[in-house]
Write a structure and sequence with these properties.
It is a single chain. The protein is an all-alpha fold and about 80 residues long. Helices cover about 70% and strands about 0% of the residues. The chain is built from four helices and no strands. The longest helix has 16 residues. The radius of gyration is 12 Å and the shape is globular.
């Protein structure tokens, strides 16, 4: 796995996307490339890496009709 691919995987995992979901996406090169391209497009539009990962993770949750892990709390 190249560094950019690992970075996108880790960022999405940091925003609550379960590893099992990411593993299924990243085992298919074309599916992984769709996410990587979306991540890079958001960066080019001026979003930070965190903003990009948050946006994509929210899309994954919507598309799969799953809820983020409720045990993850954001520090204030």
């Amino acid at each position: 796995m190249n560094a950019n691919r690992v970075n996108v995987y880790n960022r999405l995992r940091d925003f609550g996307v379960p590893s099992t979901v990411l593993d299924n996406i990243f085992k298919d090169d074309s599916d992984a490339q769709v996410l990587i391209n979306a991540f890079e497009a958001l960066l080019e539009d001026g979003h930070s890496e965190d903003e990009s990962a948050k946006e994509i993770s929210e899309m994954i949750f919507r598309e799969l009709d799953i809820l983020p892990d409720q045990s993850i709390e954001v520090e204030k």
